[in-house]
Amino acid sequence: MTLDFDNTIADIEKHTQQLIVEYAMKKSIKEKLDKDLLTKQNELEQVSNLIDILEQVRFLLQRTSEYAREQIKQQIEMLVTHCLQFVFGPSLEFEIELNEVRGKTSAEFYVISTYNDVKIKTKPQDARGGGIVDVISLALRIAVIQSTDTYKDGPLILDEPAKHVSSEYISNVARFLKQISDVFHRQIIMVTHNQYLSEIADLTYKVELKNGASEVTVYNLEQ
What topology is assigned to 2-218 in CATH? Predict the structure, then answer.
């Protein structure tokens, strides 16, 4: 009787250990799936933002004459290329391909990466990491505003620009925005959590949630 009882306990302990191992494995798998899901959600957000601004550019190109269209195309390519190279280095270019489809102009957008004198053309969302999609979206918004007469004097309003750009390049984004403000004489109003982007401002306000209410104070960057 005692032997049967000991065997039962041993079986229960063995089964318990198996369950513990199985739980640990499934927990690890779940954590990986959660991490992958978050990554994909961030990628989806980037692509969705890019699609929105690309559609605006396509519309702009479709509504202009052939000569004006080519001029705008070159302006947009130049500004976006400048932005990419300013942030990531000289190995990147931005290119727009225009095609006539059933009497309508369609536009395709590409990033050209140069590796050891070899040029590789890809869609923006397929280009290398480091927040390229965010930087292209930012540059395209600026290009569209500067290429039209409908928004000559208003400020450039940005909400968390380049939030997926890695810390290695974010200071370059900050300097690029400062340059854009100086060159085009356009005020930038920006909401951001990033310190580098905050430091380019002439005036910074800090918003904090205290006791259920937002408290706004002038932020001293030297603090």
Answer: Rossmann fold (3.40.50)
